[in-house]
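Handout, page 2. Input:
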Amino acid sequence: MDGLLQALPLALSLEGLLFTLIGTTLGILVGSIPGLSGTMLIALSLPLTFTMSPALALMMLVGMYVGSVAGGLISATLLRMPGTPASVLTTLDGYPMARAGRPGRALALGITASFVGGLVSWVALILVSRPLADFALRFTPWDYFAFIMVAMVLIASLSRGAMVKGLLSGFLGILIAMPGSDPSTGMPRLAFGNRAMENGFDVLPVLIGLFAVSQIMRGLTEHLGVAERIEIRRERVTLSLADWRRHGGNMLRSSTLGTLIGILPGVGANVGSVVAYSTARSFSKEPERFGTGSEEAVIASEAGNSATVGGALVPLVAIGIPGSVIDAILIGGLYLHGIVPGPMLFSTNPDVVYAIMISCLVATLMMFVLMTGLVRHLPKLARVDRSLLLPGILVFCIVGSYAATNRFFDVWVMLAFGVLGFLLEKARVPLAPLVIGFILGPLAEAKLRTGLMITAGDPSPLVTQPLPAFLMGIALLLLLWPLLSRLLPPRLKPGARPAGGSGPA
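Output:
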């Protein structure tokens, strides 16, 4: 708590509030435009943070994170085009409400639910992070390696489509991280005689290529279609006391679930939204209304996805393991500023840790005020023609990649990974496991080598020590779950109805 109080002057200074406001506003704007994403915005903004202090840089990036997740609500409700993947389920009920003449009501529910989700997850961030970091200080190299394996397998198993594609994407990320200096000998490896490759691929051009250039290429080759435009007239965009009594339980339940999902390494807001939505339907007295304009559904989806933001920051600041793809990019931002994430962060850079925590709360408050005050004007942003934005974004990509190291080699790396990201998405191979593998691969290798050096090459602690054995067992179970689920009796399979039951489909 002392560190939190020490970080308050910076976080609440005029400069700190300004950068948080800039980040939150940009996040909302980008989240409101279909085809753009917070991941793209944060990756593209990393070069702009070089001249900033690490604390201010992370405060701005966290503001972008909070704003982009909540901003997807606008286009999802008014255009039936989710601004972010996390808002996909919001379209199922927000858009029908808007077409039925209640767009202001749908937005009011979504904005308030996002606000509550952010507050609940912030409380968890404050209460859980430091104890988890203190516990992680006792981790052995084998504990760390096993934890990273769980994170890799977990995000692969939750990837859309086949798990095999998720695993291949993760292994590809690990392979991409291997060129450069050998962590044990310091000798170049996989450089193929190219001096520029002796330091490996820099994190910045890789991330910009995967999440910005690939989206530019996608935007140039795909057409989103034209959705029916719905205007917001003079409607109340705040909730009454009766609304709080009616929907408060759903907000808290969905926010808690989203926070817990966010803490799981590599999962992200998409899964938080799905779990909260499904749970709300199970508890609802009118489950048949879900998908046709249910207020409970809008609340569950938005509270669930926004709550994952604070939850996902917990493993980032406490262990150095990203809770989502955006958190992986934030870890890349820490490395760019010479900060090594992990449990020692509370001792080595407490100003950065507590600035992240405070900015998460401040950005949530700013998001609520901005979206409530500008709700009648934000729909205009959702209809911006992306062809007007993409050329300028590409210029920023090139300049940002070159400015990092003043090497044109990094520009070619950025373009190459842009093409790779575009082709992988065309093949329905998820990018999230690739990024997690690229960020965590070197850490896993370092921990594994350290453990093997301690035990003279004996890997048995992975199965003989309690925590590594438990974690590796979870990873193995996740890998085998698709096969095991086929062997279960029909009545025990997830989602199966009890005999004679009439639950929701």
